[in-house]
Amino acid sequence: MIKQGKGWRLGWRADAPVYKGLVGAEDWAMELTEEEMRDFCRLLRQIHQTVADLSKHLMPEESLVCEVESELLWLGAEGFPDNYSLRLILSQPRRAEGTWPPHAIPELLQASQSLGLF
The CATH number of the domain where 59 resides is what? Predict the structure, then answer.
């Protein structure tokens, strides 16, 4: 099953032997193991909540930078609480990197929650 929207793609195939997940944007994609995909979904939810919490302490003109990570991957948000981009770095055992534009984040978050992996 692959879900996609403007600027994002997200896929899950539970019966795949190794790479069960897929994350991507319009011009890139990477396959993830089940552990990586679970971490991605969990950290995406966590960074979204952290951005919402930080927004209460910012002036309207202030931007933010927020990072969350696990042993397998790192996520970073940069921008304004209601308009931030997201960067993913896959750290081990292989390396990969990708970014999503601000307009893609709300739908990406909603799609990740619908997978029920966290």
Answer: 2.30.31.10
